[in-house]
Amino acid sequence: MDAEAIKMLAVGMAAGLGLLGPALGLGLIGFSTVQALGRNPEARGAIMTNMILVAALTEAIGIYALIVSIILAMVA
What we know:
This protein has one domain: F1FO ATP Synthase. The relative contact order is 0.17. The chain is an all-alpha fold and 76 residues long. It is built from two helices and no strands. α1 packs antiparallel against α2 (44-74). It is elongated and about 60 Å long.
């Protein structure tokens, strides 16, 4: 294998593994939100506010992984 192929393999693994955690996290956030709304629909405002905040923080971790993989792809 040449160096370019190994570099692209590293980029793919960094993106794939780095985005796996946030994807699972967002799924769990959505699942927990639906469960909480099913149990207590009156608390919709507080539940949705917290869900959006946590989802945004989880997305930020995914964006960091994406940026690292783009930087790896562009570096010699």
